[in-house]
Amino acid sequence: MTVEGGSVPFGSPGPPSARLVEHLEACLVCRACETACPSGVPFGRIMEGAREVLREREPTGPLTRALRRAGLDTLTRPGRLAVLARLADLARRLGLTWLAARMEGAPFRLVDRPGPDATVLAGCVMRAAFGETDRAIVRLLEREGFAVSLPIEQTCCGALHAHAGEGERARELARLNIDAFAGSDATIVVNAAGCGAHMKAYGELLADDEAWAERARAAAARVRDLSEVVKPRPLDASRPIRVVYQDACHLAHGQRIRTQPRALLQSVQGLTLVDIADPERCCGSAGIYNLTHPDISAQLQRDKVAAILAARPDVVVSANPGCVLQIAAGLRAAGAAIPIVHIARFLDDPDTASRP
User: Fold this and answer.
1) Is the pLDDT of residue 144 over 70?
2) pTM attached to this predicted model
C-alpha cells in the first residue's frame, strides 16, 4: 500500500510517510467502527498491529524510545503509582482540591486467598488512584456470595502498551498476568473497560506464541466485566436520583456490553436513568490520547459534557477510570458540581456516591 504524501509503501522496509503516521496516530482506537462494520472487522487489533510496525520503523533515537517506555512502564510499578496516590492525599489535606479530586481513597492492597470463586484484576491506575472503587468491587462480589481473591503477582494488563505500539511489552505483560491468575479456574473480574477488552483478546495477542497460545485462550475465556458477574438486586436510594450512564468505548464497542450496566442501575429504587445525545461517542480520554492529542481530546470532552449537562443528571456513572477522570475534569471546567463515579462505587452505596 502506497499512501498519498509519501513514496514508501507501508508493507515495505523503511519508515512510513509522515502523512500515514499522522493518520494512524490520530485514531482514538475507540472501536466504534467495529460496531458499525457489518463484516465484523477487528479494527482495534489491526490498528495495534499497525502502530507496532510504526514503532519498529520510526526514525527516533534510543532516548525518545526509552522515555516513552519508561512512561508506560510506570503503570507496571505499584511503588511509583503509590507515590502519586500519597501526593494526592497530601494535596487533599493541604486543600489543593484541583489535584486531590483526581484520586480517591488510599491505594488498594492485594490479598491472595485460596479456593476463590472470583479473582479480581485490581488494575494499575484503579489500584493506586481508585482505591475505594476496588474495595467496593470486592464488597459487591462478596455480597453475591463469591469467595474473592486478588492475585499478588498480577500486573498491568498491557492495554495502553498495545495501543501505543509497544507490542512486545504488551505480550510480556499478558504472559505475566496469565501466570498470576493461573492458581485457579475462577472467573477473572475486571473493573476497567479497556483492561477487560484487552484481556479478553489475550488469545489473539499470543496466538503466534506456541508455548503460550493455549494458556492465553483459556485465560481470556475466564475474563468478565464486573457488570457481567454482579446481578441486579433491589437497592434503595434515600432520594430520587437522575443518573446518566456513560458508555465507555471499550465496554460498548470492544466488549459489546451495554444492557448489563443499565440493568444494574435500574434495580436501584428511586433512580431515573436519563439518556444523552450521541451516548456512544468517545469522551476523548482514549487511554493516553488526551496527552498525545490534547486539542481533539478537549473538543470531545466538551461535547460529552454538553450532552450530560443537557440531561440534567444528579450523578454520572461510568465503568472506566479514564472516562471518570476525563469527564470529571470537563465538568469542573464547565463549572458543574455533578459527581461522576465508577459503577461499583454507585452500586455499593448510591447515596454516598451521588453526593457532590
Assistant:
1) yes
2) 0.81
